[in-house]
């Protein structure tokens, strides 16, 4: 925000600068360029620590307190974060209302932080390596559609929904209304969050050859968490 971003903004606006002021040429043109750039703010190590919540059950506490000093030290250094903070990391329940997910983001070296909303939709696009072609964002209606191509060339639809607004029963009705039919071959893969009863196996009619085929319907939650914490 303090170095790279201002430099890019200056280059976009004017070709030449002097003492902090843009310099026009003889014709009054600054020779700027048409350009757009996006600034991504990535979660830092400090942000991760700020959002950890250690939950120790009574049996765990009794067990830890009864450990010899050396073993207790080993537990605190090697296992405590894994065992006691795992429920405070991104979990499947956070995907029920994916547009409201928030983290405490560090604002200075003194440890101050602000609560900010995290863009799970765009984060998932990056995790998939999705080349986005179209985004239909209708947050007031509780859903976002992302259409794109996966690195292996498969076409994909990523359908996010606020599960409080679009529940189990309402999902299929909305997909019909949006003309999204898993029977079609328009998409090779469809990702959706939350519980659903979208069929994954279809039997075509005799006129169509009577062929049974499957549709790749994938849960966003499991795919997101697998890719987010792969190798962790």
Percent of sequence in beta strands: 15-25%
Number of domains: 3
**Shape field:** flat
Number of helices: 8
Q: What is the topology, as strand order, of the major beta sheet?
A: 5-6-7-8-11
Please write the string of helix (H) and strand (E) elements.
HEEHHHHEEHEEEHEEEEH
- The N- to C-terminal Cα distance equals 29 Å
The description of the largest β-sheet is: 5 strands, mixed
Average predicted confidence as pLDDT: 83
* Gyration radius, rounded: 25 Å
The helix-and-strand class reads alpha+beta
Oligomer: single chain
Low-confidence stretches: none
The proportion of residues forming helix, as a percent range, comes to 25-40%
Count of beta strands: 11
């Amino acid at each position: 925000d303090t170095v790279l971003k201002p430099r890019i903004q200056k280059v976009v606006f004017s070709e030449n600068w002097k003492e902090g002021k843009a310099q026009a040429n003889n014709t009054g043109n600054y020779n700027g360029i048409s350009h757009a750039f996006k600034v991504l703010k990535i979660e830092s190590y400090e942000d991760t620590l700020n959002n950890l919540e250690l939950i120790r059950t009574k049996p765990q506490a009794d067990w830890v307190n009864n450990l010899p000093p050396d073993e207790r030290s080993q537990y605190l250094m090697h296992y405590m974060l894994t065992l006691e903070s795992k429920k405070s990391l991104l979990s499947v329940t956070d995907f029920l209302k994916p547009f409201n997910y928030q983290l405490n983001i560090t604002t200075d070296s003194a440890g101050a932080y602000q609560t900010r909303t995290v863009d799970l939709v765009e984060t998932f696009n990056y995790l998939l390596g999705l080349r986005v072609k179209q985004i239909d964002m209708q947050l007031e209606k509780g859903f976002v559609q992302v259409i794109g191509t996966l690195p292996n060339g498969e076409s994909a639809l990523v359908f996010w929904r606020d599960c409080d607004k679009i529940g189990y029963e309402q999902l299929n009705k909305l997909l019909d209304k949006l003309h999204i039919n898993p029977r079609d071959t328009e998409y090779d893969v469809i990702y959706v969050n939350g519980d659903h009863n979208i069929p994954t196996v279809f039997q075509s009619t005799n006129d169509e050859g009577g062929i049974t085929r499957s549709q790749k319907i994938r849960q966003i939650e499991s795919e997101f968490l697998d890719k987010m914490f792969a190798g962790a």
